[in-house]
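Technical annex, item 7. During the second reporting period the consortium partners agreed on a shared format for inverse folding records so that results from different sites could be compared directly. Each record opens with the tokenized structure and is followed by the designed sequence. A conforming record, contributed by the partner at site C, is shown below for reference.
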């Protein structure tokens, strides 16, 4: 008679405490958890057989019970500028994107926190996708593990790493999935594992004001805020979350953000939309609003997607805006979208591959 495969538990994404509890229940000595952690997050091992400091019998028993998994790659693309985009599929068939952006002196991995998004920002392609669920801590960590595999980045301590920085700027609103994001980031920051310091991690939010202080106090990562407008009237339209947490409240939370200083500034993202928010008067108002906040501004030319109700301003309009912000003493680089030749806006890789599918009740919606 054929034995059915026994259900396996994936060890990736468990906290150290959870990993220790799994191993204790399994009868292994406590220090084995530390050894396993090292194999998983420092060495990138996916096969228990490679764990040479564990007895053969233990390795076999571990392999029968556990897996060290990775999300499945549905599509992997490399752009002419070196940007890589992966469309990943998780165990339940849901998909999300991860993007690697190489630069001269660093490499940034843009990680998703949800499948889809509930915020429905009108310029954002991800908001057009109906299906939404939170990613688990394992699925968030899994994106980084997968990128490390693909870039040949093990062991962790290697010099000239290509994944030096992490930005939570992919699909989803990380502060509507705080617990899983926090758990994932703690694993990512663990110095005996992936070892990416909080100073190299940036969490981007559309402005979930009540959660912002916790990010600073509990995680201490860099904060980015998707501002995009200087009046509530316009921001209500672009970022509907503004109706709940208006600009003044959002900026107050930024003023109080623990750890923000001139050396560690809060990034304000501002997507440039032609004729909507790109005037020089708005640039001046932006400068006035940011007064007193250790800030830098990222100007993001609108990245178009089919059917989008916006256009990207001219280079001259973007530069004129940038010059005003810069003259007021803020860094205001124009962040030209990378990897445009392989797919444009974030979320589009996923939409391109979308099959008709059933909408399930949203797990994320009730955390609003
Ligand atoms: N929900 C979070 C993180 C995801 S969005 C947030 O709102 O910050 C990451 C960034 O991409 C945000 O600044 C978002 O406003 C921007 N963005 C989304 N769609 C875009 C588009 N089509 N063109 C340019 N930037 C876009």
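Designed sequence (site C submission):
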């Amino acid at each position: 008679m054929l034995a059915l495969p026994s259900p396996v538990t994936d060890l990736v994404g468990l906290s150290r405490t959870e990993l220790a509890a799994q191993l204790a229940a399994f009868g292994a000595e406590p220090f084995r958890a530390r050894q396993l952690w090292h194999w998983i997050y420092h060495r990138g091992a996916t096969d228990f057989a490679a764990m040479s400091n564990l007895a053969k019998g233990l390795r076999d028993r571990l392999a029968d019970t556990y897996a060290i998994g990775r999300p499945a790659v549905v599509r992997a693309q490399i752009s002419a500028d070196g940007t890589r985009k992966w469309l990943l599929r998780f165990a339940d068939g849901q998909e999300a994107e991860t993007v690697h952006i190489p630069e001269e002196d660093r490499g940034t991995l843009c990680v998703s926190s949800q499948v889809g998004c509930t915020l429905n920002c009108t310029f954002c392609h991800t908001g057009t996708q109906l299906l939404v669920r939170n990613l688990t801590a394992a699925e968030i960590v899994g994106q980084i593990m997968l990128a490390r595999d693909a870039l040949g980045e093990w062991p962790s301590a290697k010099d000239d790493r290509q994944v030096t920085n992490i930005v939570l700027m992919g699909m989803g609103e990380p502060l509507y999935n705080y617990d899983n994001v926090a758990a994932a980031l703690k694993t990512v920051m663990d110095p005996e594992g992936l070892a990416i310091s909080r100073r190299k991690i940036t969490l981007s939010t559309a402005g979930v004001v009540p959660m912002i202080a916790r990010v600073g106090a509990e995680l201490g990562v860099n904060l980015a805020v998707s501002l995009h407008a200087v009046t509530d009237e316009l921001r209500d339209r672009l970022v509907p979350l503004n109706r709940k947490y208006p600009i003044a409240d959002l900026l107050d939370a930024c003023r109080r953000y623990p750890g923000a200083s001139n050396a560690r500034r809060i990034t304000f993202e501002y997507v440039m939309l032609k004729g909507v928010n790109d005037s020089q008067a708005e640039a001046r108002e932006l400068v006035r609003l940011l007064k007193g906040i250790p800030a830098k501004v990222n100007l993001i030319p609108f990245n178009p997607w089919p059917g989008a109700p916006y256009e990207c301003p001219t280079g001259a309009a973007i530069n004129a805006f940038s010059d005003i912000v810069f003259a007021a003493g803020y860094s205001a680089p124009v962040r030209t979208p990378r990897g445009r030749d392989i797919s444009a806006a974030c979320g589009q890789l996923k939409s391109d591959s979308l099959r008709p599918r059933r909408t399930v009740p949203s797990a994320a919606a009730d955390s609003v």
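The CA atoms of residues 131 and 357 lie 9 Å apart. Residues 121, 123-125, 169, 173, 204-206, 226, 269, 271, 300, 302-303, 345-346 surround S-adenosyl-L-homocysteine (CB under 6 Å). All partners now use this format for quarterly exchanges.
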